[in-house]
Amino acid sequence: MSQQRQILVTSALPYANGAIHLGHMVEHIQTDVWVRFQKMRGHECYYVCADDTHGTPIMLAAEKQGVTPEALIERVQAEHLADFTGFHIGYDNYYSTNSPENREYARSIYNTLKANGKIVSRTIEQLFDPEKQMFLPDRFVKGECPKCSAKDQYGDNCEVCGATYSPTELKNPYSAVSGATPVLKTSEHFFFRLGDCADYLKGWTAGSSVRGDGETQPHLQAESLNKMNEWIEGGLNDWDISRDAPYFGFEIPDAPGKYFYVWLDAPVGYMASFKNLADRIGLNFDDWFKPDSKAELYHFIGKDILYFHALFWPAMLHFAGFRAPTGVFAHGFLTVDGQKMSKSRGTFITAKSYLDCGLNPEWMRYYIAAKLNARIEDIDLSLDDFVARVNSDLVGKFVNIASRSAGFIAKRFGGQLAEAVADGEILARLQNEAAAIAAAYEAREYAKALRDVMGLADLVNAYVDANKPWELAKQQGQDARLQEVCTVLINAFRLLTIYLKPVLPKLAEGVEAFLNVAPLTWRDADSLLLGHTIAPYQHLMQRIDPALIEKLIEANKQSMEPQAAPAAAGNFEPLADTITIDDFAKLDLRIGKVLDCQFIEGSDKLLNFTVDLGFETRTIFSGIRKAYPEPEKLIGRKVVVVANLAPRKMRFGTSSGMIVCASGADDGSGLFLLDADQGAAPGMRIG
Fold it and tell me: Is-contact 389 447, C-beta < 8 A?
């Protein structure tokens, strides 16, 4: 093995205002598998995380429940950790952003950035709730869309027509907190000058670091780099890092009544959690975070928070005198039967319900890992496929090897394996695959690693069928051959367990007890167990009983039921005011063809369309993400475009037009693109 590496790994911090669901588990399982693999390789590797505990939603949720924010986040942290522990996520430290260490580092980073000219203040206008005496974040203001007059829209984006705007543009706005009519009020805010960091970020995002083993590690995946280049080239805006009281968070030094915006101190929580661990076990924190540190720092995150981790975070660290990450690994969402894990979409399964229903967490660990690769792709959970894959791979192929051989060793040979085996070829084949499987784990290509492992399991099962130990046991004079065949199978099972241990740590513990060996490491694949005495075999894993799946569906029934159909008969939105033909003539509606359609990082509502209008190609943002969770399927489709709508500059870029949809459900999922008959060509006018 190459020299020992020092590795610090984090997962994104779960927000302390909701239950952990299987969508969260994708990330934490992905991270945990990688960390366990690194530890099996003998590297010094630590995995830290924490609850993200600050912000207006926490403050309001605590108020609603009649408890203090501190009491709320303490309870939620215990619930979160119980869920993660139930899925065998092996944190070295699970902490809280509401900690003295986080306060210290957030203030220190802020003060250093300020001294380096990276913090500026300016007066801004915001909507203010006169009843709650608080400034209202965009999502806490609702009203009528200034473009289409749809009611009950949020303060930043209309889920009906897709328009984006500032909260001050809403018609008839009201506070989502109290229902009061907000008023405009000025306030001094502090901004991080992200645009001043553009040159550094161009280099960092496209750059790489040398790992402890001498290999080169790109800072970002190719898809992430492309997206960050778009952001940088489009111009980076100053980032508002302050919020006004009342606010649950850390007060900004020398600014009474001003608090750090949660997204400033949340990533600092990675440092705080590691500092807490370092102090507890005697590590030197500075050795891991100083600018010239040889340690490796990796963040596993969802693609929706890439902007914060690939731009804000490395810029904050660098200009505050700390090292930047070695790598930021983004993953896609978990979908259920093709739809994103979401309460409003009816596809929400909590981690607690999974455990409470008696399902083995390692079933889900294996299923998720078997679908993960190093790219930013959504993975889909089909409960039918889940049952079939686990029962086939883990029970039918893997555990089956031990169950078909261990009994003969126990009953006929006192638990002792043969001193030597003649059939060494199959074991050599399994051993020779150790390096390739390790490389797949290192590269986060778990699906490939597990495909290769199951391919080896197929070879071993073919060996079982060819040698038929149950037949050998019936034949006179075949004891030596029976012991040898079963020894090959036990050794093959041990090798496969080594390769599966990062994914199935609890099962591996059971195998280690059965084999009567110390905890298995990757280096153990170089050797065999010969002349060794094993313990009596205890069954290691059951098949998934379909009744458990029914129980899980029932436990999540309320959130998994299809949502009410939008706009049922007799429940249509009232007609708008009558217009004249002259009013209609002002609209220039055109046929467009979708050339490309992608998610927009940082937005949970918008899709980024590239549309051919015949005479030109345009970029149009449309708030239909909830209704169309697989945007690539829209490529090639014809749509109706309002072509003469004034371009609108947004923080994601400029949107030049509007794509027309029929609308129904209030949650934005009841949106339907309009089609054009065959023969309609891009650029044709409608009317």
Answer: no
In this structure, the answer to whether residues 326 and 181 fall within a common structural domain is no
Same domain assignment for residues 411 and 447 = yes
pLDDT digits (tens, 9 = 90+) for 386-400: 999 999 999 999 999
CATH, residue 172: 2.170.220.10
Domain limits at 634? 581-686
Q: Do residue 113 and residue 136 come from a single domain?
A: no
Quickly tell me which residue has 């959690």 as its tokens: 273
Is-cis flag, bond preceding 647, omega within 30?
A: no
Answer with the one of 316, 331, 346 that is the final residue of a domain.
331
Dist CA 164 CA 238 (whole Å): 19
Distance CA 266, CA 268 (A): 5
Q: Are residues 178 and 225 in the same domain?
A: no
CATH code, domain with 595? 2.40.50.140
Asked if 313 and 1 count as a contact pair (C-beta separation under 8 A), the reply is: no
Query: For the chain, how big is the Rg over CA atoms in Å?
Result: 29
DSSP 8-state assignment for residue 501: T
Sign of CA dihedral 391, 392, 394, 399: positive
pLDDT per position as a tens digit, 553-604: 888 876 554 443 333 333 445 556 566 666 677 788 999 988 888 888 777 7
Are the beta carbons of 327 and 217 closer than 8 angstroms? Answer: yes
Number of domains in the chain: 4
- For residue 266, give the amino acid letter: A
CA of 460: how far to CAs of 133, 230, 486, in Å? 70, 49, 11
* Residues 139, 262 contacting (CB under 8 angstroms): no
Pair 359, 340: CB distance under 8 Å: no
Q: DSSP 3-state helix, strand, coil percentages of the chain (rounded to 5)?
A: 40, 20, 40
Q: Are 337 and 382 in contact (CB under 8 A)?
A: yes
Contacts of 523 (CB under 8 A, 6+ apart): 1, 42
Length of the chain: 687
* Torsion region of 88: left, alpha or beta (phi above 0 gives left; psi -120 to 50 gives alpha): left
pLDDT in tens, 291-341: 999 999 999 999 989 999 999 999 999 999 999 999 999 999 998 877 665
Q: Is residue 586 part of a domain?
A: yes
Q: How far apart are CA 612 and CA 637, in angstroms?
A: 11
> In the structure encoding, which two tokens stand for residue 388, read together?
């079939």
Residue 487 placed within a domain: yes
CATH code at 301? Answer: 3.40.50.620
Q: Which amino acid is at 450?
A: L
Strand 93-96 versus strand 334-336 pairing type: unpaired
